[in-house]
Amino acid sequence: MSPNSPFAIPLIHNAVGISTPFLLAAIGGLYTELAGMLNIALEGLILTGAFFSIVFAAATGSLLAGILLGIACSMLLALLFGLVTLYLRANVFITGLATNLFASGFTVVLAFQLFKTKGVIQFPDIPPLPVLAVPAALQRIPVLGDILFGHNVIVYATWLIVLLSALVIYRTPFGMRLRGTGLGPASIVSLGLDPRRYQLAGILVSGLTCSLAGAFLTLQLAAFVPEISSGRGWIALVAIYLGNKAPWGIAIASFVFGLAESFSNFAQGFLNVP
Do the Cβ atoms of 70 and 214 come closer than 8 Å? Predict the structure, then answer.
């Protein structure tokens, strides 16, 4: 298939957008992974961010307020998960699963209390996610112009987060200490530092990025669907390892998952397979 074909370009363009929640969740999970913790609560954090982002966006009439309040709610749940795991010494797998189950049940219960339905909740009055305006000359770049431009602001914010994460993890004292915590907490203790603080910081970062992933899912639909995360948190964990625990490797792995889902959507139009 030629990259210049009319089929390939929209396929790859859609894959870039589809891969965004995978990439956001995986980058957040990378921080906890480098700190020596397997964060299986990503699914619940995505779902929490998805629900509260659109609810607050509808309540305030502002996408920015909705996203920020959604981040606050997701980080609050991440903080609870971190405190119970790190300071009460609960098993990280049990608390991670509990976080996922709590988010799954709590969003349904709260949706029923607020909107009297356990199904899909539509918010037709919220403004759409803005598409980043770029100069016309850039849009006319062959192939790349059609693939890279025309996405909403969360997609571009995701690329910026990947770049910043690469700088923070490999070029800052915080990043060095975060990686040192995962490689050997004793080295961090020898510096007079508490490794739990870096692990908790990683969990909070995962709450932030997962909330953006959830906001991307609901705000572009202008609707909340129960279990809208649909396993993306688990796929993000796989992307961390496929990407060799490196930001750019994770970006490539996430794009592969996005491309597969994009192809499945396009294939329904020209293949005789459901």
Answer: yes
